[in-house]
Specification:
Length: 453
C-alpha cells in the first residue's frame, strides 16, 4: 500500500502535540470540557473539517466531518480529565500543580491527539485518491463517570458509521479484544425523622440505618448473583456528623455491572428490592435517581485483525536515552512494581486465541452497539503505572507518550485506509456486528435520564 498519506502526520506533528498539550494544560472534568473541546474543534476547522456541536444535549460533544458518502469511518476522541488529580508534569514524585485543580490521569489528551492525527492522514488519502467516503472525529466528552457516549448515541450519530476506532493510552501495545460489562449508577436517597438519639429515640426513624440495611441485604445478595455481576457502593451522605441525632437523611450511590444490558436490568431490579426492604424495616421512605449507564462492549474480530495488521506494518516507537531515564525514575516511584517489567512496552502483543473476561466498563459500549467498533491499547506509560494516578499526569507530556500518540495516529490511519481499499472487510465487520446485536440497540440508560451537567 502506498503510505504517502502518513506524511501529513509527520508534517503536522508539532501542531498535534501542541493540541494534546493544550488539552493537558486545561484539565476539565466530565461535561465541562469547554476549552479542550473548543481547541480540538478549532484545529479541525482550520484543517477543512465541518463541525456539528452540542450533540445529545452535551455542550462539549461534537462531530467533525470531512468528505461525503460511504464508507464512513470515525475516530473516537475523548478529552475529559480526572477530578482533583493535579500533578506537575515530567517529575517522578507526587506534587500538586498549583495552577491546576484537575489532571489528565487517564491520558485522554493522548486519546484525542491520536484521533486528530489519524483523521488528518485519512483526509489526505481521500483528497489524493478522489474516492468517495467520509472521515469523522467523534468528540466524546464525559467518559469518566458521565457515560457521555450513551447520550450521544441516543441521537443516532454513530448509526451511519461503517466503523469506529479509538485508542486509549495504556502501558502495552495491543488491539483490545476483551469485551466490557454494561454498567449503571443509581443514587438511593432515604428519608426518615430526626430525633434526640438518647432522650426520644423512639420518635426517630434513621435514614442511615436504612442505608446500612440496604448494603447488608446487597452483600447477602452477592452469593446468589451470576458470576459476572458486580455491585459497588459509596455512602455519599451519612446523615450528618452528630451521633446524638437520629439521621433524617442518607444517600448511597450504587454501581451495578453485568454481562449485557438485559442482565444489568435484572440485577438492578434485585438491588432495588434491597432498598425497598430496608425502607420497610426502618419505616423510612426512599427515592432512586438514575445517574449514568453504559452498554456492554460489542467486539468485532474482523476489525481487530485489520487494526492488528495496520499496527504491525509500521515500527513501534523506540525509547531513546532521555525517555529511558525519565521512565526509570517513574518506574522507581511505583510502589510494588512487578520485577522484570520493561521501562516501556516495545512489543506488539499478538491477538489472543482465547479472549479473557474483563470486568470493567466503558461508554464506548454504546458506540459499539451502533456500529462496528475497535480499540487500541496505546503503549504510552511505564508498565506497572497504576490507572488514574499522579504518575500518569506526570507522564502525559513526556516524549515517549508523544511518540506513542503519533504512532497510534498513523496505525489508525493505515487501518482506515485498508477498510477504504477493501470494502469486503467492512461488509464482514457489519455481518459480525449484526450477528452480535441483532440490529437492535436497547441502551442501558433509560430514555428519560438527562445528563448531569
Ligand atoms: Zn479513566
Ligand atoms: Zn480513560
Amino acid at each position: 500500500m502506498d503510505m504517502d498519506f502518513l506524511s501529513v502526520i509527520d508534517a503536522k506533528k508539532d501542531e498535534i502535540i501542541k493540541l494534546a498539550d493544550t488539552v493537558w494544560e486545561n484539565p476539565e472534568t466530565a461535561f465541562k470540557e469547554y476549552k479542550s473541546s473548543a481547541a480540538i474543534i478549532s484545529y479541525l476547522k482550520e484543517n477543512g473539517f465541518s463541525v456539528e456541536k452540542n450533540i445529545g444535549g452535551l455542550p462539549t460533544a461534537f462531530i467533525a466531518s470531512y468528505g461525503s458518502g460511504h464508507p464512513e469511518i470515525g475516530f473516537i476522541a475523548e478529552f475529559d480529565a480526572i477530578s482533583d488529580l493535579s500533578q506537575v508534569a515530567l517529575i517522578a514524585e507526587p506534587k500538586r500543580d498549583p495552577e491546576r485543580q484537575h489532571g489528565h490521569a487517564c491520558g485522554h489528551h493522548i486519546y484525542c491527539g491520536n484521533a486528530v492525527a489519524a483523521a488528518l492522514a485519512v483526509q489526505a488519502y481521500l483528497k489524493k485518491s478522489g474516492k468517495p467516503g467520509t472521515i469523522k472525529v467523534l468528540g466524546c466528552p464525559g467518559e469518566e463517570g458521565g457515560s457521555g457516549k450513551a447520550y450521544m448515541a441516543r441521537t443516532g450519530v454513530f448509526r451511519s458509521l461503517d466503523a469506529a476506532m479509538g485508542g486509549h493510552p495504556e502501558s502495552m501495545w495491543a488491539v483490545r479484544t476483551r469485551p466490557s460489562l454494561a454498567c449503571c449508577n443509581i443514587l438511593y436517597r432515604f428519608d426518615g425523622r430526626p430525633s434526640h438519639a438518647g432522650a426520644t429515640p423512639h420518635l426517630g426513624r434513621s435514614a442511615l440505618d436504612a442505608v446500612e440495611l440496604m448494603n447488608v441485604a446487597v452483600n447477602f445478595l452477592r452469593e446468589h448473583m451470576p458470576m459476572d455481576n458486580r455491585v459497588h457502593y459509596a455512602i455519599i451522605d451519612a446523615g450528618g456528623n452528630a451521633p446524638n441525632v437520629v439521621q433524617p437523611h442518607a444517600e448511597v450511590m450504587y454501581m451495578m455491572r453485568a454481562k449485557d444490558n438485559t442482565d444489568l436490568n435484572a440485577l438492578c431490579k434485585r438491588v432495588h428490592k434491597c432498598a425497598e426492604g430496608a425502607a420497610l424495616a426502618t419505616e423510612t421512605t426512599f427515592s432512586s435517581e438514575f445517574h449514568a449507564a453504559s452498554s456492554n462492549l460489542i467486539t468485532i474480530p474482523t476489525l481487530q485483525k485489520n487494526l492488528y495488521k495496520a499496527m504491525a506494518s509500521i515500527p513501534l516507537p523506540v525509547p531513546d536515552e532521555e525517555d529511558l531515564a525519565f521512565g526509570q525514575a517513574i518506574a522507581d516511584s511505583i510502589v510494588d512494581r512487578k520485577p522484570g517489567l520493561p521501562i516501556y512496552a516495545t512489543e506488539l502483543l499478538p491477538l489472543p486465541d482465547v479472549i479473557s473476561p474483563h470486568f470493567g466498563s466503558t461508554d464506548t459500549g454504546d458506540v459499539s452497539w451502533n456500529c462496528p467498533t475497535v480499540q487500541m491499547h496505546v503503549g504510552c506509560w511505564v508498565p506497572g503505572t497504576p490507572g488514574h494516578s499522579w504518575q500518569i499526569v506526570s507522564q502525559g507530556k513526556c516524549n515517549f507518550a508523544r511518540k506513542a500518540m503519533i504512532y497510534a495516529g498513523k496505525a489508525f490511519a493505515i487501518a482506515a485506509v485498508q477498510l477504504f481499499e477493501n470494502p469486503e472487510l467492512l461488509a464482514q465487520a457489519k455481518k459480525e456486528h449484526l450477528e452480535k446485536t441483532g440490529g437492535i440497540y436497547e441502551p442501558a440508560m433509560p430514555a428519560d435520564v438527562m445528563p448531569h451537567l
